[in-house]
Amino acid sequence: MTATTMTPAQLTRFEARLRAERADAEERLAEFDDAMTAVRIARSDATADDEHDPEGPTMTQEWSQRTAVLADVRAEIADIDRALGRIADGGYGFCTNCGKRITVARLDARPTAELCIDCARHVR
Q1: Residues 6+ apart with CB under 8 A from 51
Q2: The pLDDT value given to residue 114
């Protein structure tokens, strides 16, 4: 892979944005993790019979939804960490599939993008 042709100012801007997005995601992860703990405690309470409660979602449904949200946030953090790693090693802004340049416009829209728009279209 060739060295990045992005300007240092662009790289600095993307790195700052990714770090801010990571901090936000970590906060959400902590909030959701606390909420999961509350659901976990409620599910372990043998007196809670929410499966027959016509009002609101069941604990099983809450558990399922919160587990999915946690997985999404963890995946988001992993994507951000990979992008920060590409900035550190000089590969940020290059498609991990074909090696072509990823446009700044695409990175502005999706700073964790690993694929150029052409390769991303083929993945779908």
Answers
A1: 58, 59, 60
A2: 97
Q: Measured in Å, how far apart are the chain's first and last C-alpha atoms?
A: 25
Sole residue written with tokens 């090693």: 89
Rounded CA gap, 48 and 59, in Å? Answer: 9
Which DSSP helix (H) or strand (E) runs through 41? helix 8-44
Nearest one of 18, 3, 103 to 120, comparing CA atoms = 103
Distances (CA, A) of 74 to 33, 90, 91, 113: 11, 24, 23, 16
pLDDT score for 55: 57
3-state secondary structure at position 53: coil
Residue 117 makes CB contacts below 8 A (sequence gap 6+) with: 102, 103, 106
Give the pair of three-digit tokens for residue 94.
């290059």
Quick check: 72 pLDDT over 60? yes
CA distances from 28 to 40, 60, 71, 76, 97 (A): 18, 21, 12, 11, 31
